[in-house]
From TrEMBL:
Residues 68-234 form the AbiJ-NTD3 domain. It comes from Kitasatospora arboriphila. It comes from the Bacteria. InterPro entries: AbiJ-NTD3. This is AbiJ-NTD3 domain-containing protein.
Length: 437
């Protein structure tokens, strides 16, 4: 079990299985505790259930980005939610409840296999069979919703409007509208981020300055300024007139999992009409590489190569590292626009992470700090990005120029970034090869 979870292997004479596991955990460095916990939750070899699983989930979820929802707002939500909407499919609603709350809390059930006093039995009696006995507020009280951590509560709220729980688009819409009316003053909302089985899929997002929003136009890997025109201004229907050798335009919905290499490669295969996955992987990798500066010493290319070298086949389900992504576009030049000109048109790299989060990676050469004006432009651009909801991480070209040092540095950075966003780094799968050549 230790190797599968990335735990150190104890000595043969450590003792019982429980004692060996405890020895593994004690020998694990603090920085590796969270990744090990993530692997434990997803491990097919180890089953963690009940209170222990919920406690482990809370520890992992709270370590990531969390939207805080105060107790008063939770109670207002309970008052706004129509219980009859949730009970469209009682069996699915019960599965959603048991995913987040301990329903079988009666020790007698361990011996008899059933209980008339467990929370599950009381919910079936007072919510399912005798509707009207409990309000949503009473149900939430019994579940412990009001006292739960924000990470658990937000996931539970998303689950209530998920098509797996509520397979009715009209009912989803009514419930989302009621929830958003309560969340609006707290600058939070449920927003549709994709579809599942033909039904809307919603995710809880912040609104206002710094809020994350669903990407609508993703233009990247550019070797020249895009030649853009509007086919329909009313519908925001853009057309990029260059071919794929100059500009790439990802025109699919970015879902709650972010934009992963596997998503990007599937899009590429559909665009190029190829069924050869290995060749498509190499072609896409090289196409993205070709969009970056081609100097003999290119720290930006080094960062891209090292990312794929570090993760290899595991990059398949990790966020895609998108180079040369356009942030602003203006048909006029800086000289023509003057003081109103938009600066920092392109991002060196963009990663679209789970939960609608966006991470910008910039590689700074000496020209970024060559003058007071250049430095002003750099920090002003950072402020603008952060106010738009981007996380900005800068690397100096000098720290990436030493490849022996750059590899461990980048591995530590990406591990920290993925851990912060509760993203598990998968084990390599034999049928996936590294996208690099």
């Amino acid at each position: 079990m230790g190797p599968e979870l990335g735990l150190p292997i104890p000595g043969e004479d450590t003792g019982t299985k429980s004692e060996r596991l405890e020895a593994c955990l004690k020998a694990l460095p603090d920085d590796n505790l969270l990744p090990a916990a993530q692997r434990l939750l997803h491990s097919p070899q180890v089953s963690v259930r009940g209170k222990e699983r919920f406690a482990l989930e809370d520890a992992v979820w709270e370590a990531g980005a969390v939207i805080e929802i105060p107790g008063r707002v939770r109670r207002e939500l309970a008052d706004a939610i129509d219980l009859d909407e949730l009970l469209y499919r009682p069996d699915r609603f019960e599965r959603a409840l048991e995913r987040f709350w301990l329903l079988d809390d009666d020790p007698v059930a361990l011996w008899t296999g059933s209980s008339s006093t467990s929370l599950r039995a009381r919910i079936r009696r007072h919510v399912f069979r005798n509707r009207g006995d409990w309000s949503v507020e009473e149900l939430f009280e019994q579940l412990g919703v009001f006292d739960a951590g924000s990470a658990r509560f937000t996931r539970f709220l998303e689950a209530l409007v998920d098509p797996a729980t509520l397979p009715d688009a009209a009912a989803q819409g009514r419930l989302v509208e009621a929830i958003n009316a309560v969340l609006a003053p707290a600058a939070i909302r449920l927003e549709q981020t994709g579809e599942r089985d033909g039904y809307p899929h919603f995710q809880l997002l912040r609104t206002g300055p710094g809020a994350v929003r669903r990407p609508k136009t993703l233009i990247f890997a550019t070797t020249a300024k895009p030649d853009i025109r509007f086919l329909s201004v009313v519908d925001n229907d853009l057309e990029v007139l260059q071919g794929m050798d100059q500009v790439l335009v990802y025109d699919r919905t970015v879902g709650p999992d972010g934009l992963r290499w596997c998503d990007l490669q599937q899009w590429w295969q559909d665009k190029t009409g190829t069924d050869d996955t290995e060749q498509a992987k190499k072609d896409l990798y090289n196409r993205l590489l070709a969009s970056m500066p081609s100097e003999d010493v290119s720290p930006q290319r080094d960062l891209y190569r090292l990312y794929h070298r570090i993760y290899g086949a595991r990059a398949w389900t990790l966020p895609a590292l998108l180079p040369e992504v356009w942030l602003h576009w203006d048909h006029k030049t800086v000289q023509q626009r003057g003081v109103e000109a938009l600066l920092n048109h392109r991002m060196d790299f963009l990663m679209l992470l789970p939960g609608g989060h966006r991470a910008v990676l910039e590689v700074d050469g000496r020209h970024h700090y060559a003058s007071a004006k250049a430095y002003e432009d750099t920090v002003r651009g950072d402020r603008d990005l952060k106010l738009r909801g981007y996380e900005v991480y800068r690397f100096s070209s000098t720290e990436l120029s030493n490849r022996h040092r750059a590899g461990p540095l980048l591995e530590q950075f990406f591990t920290g970034l993925f851990t912060h966003h509760s993203l598990t780094i998968p084990q390599a799968e034999p049928h996936h090869t590294a996208p690099s050549t």
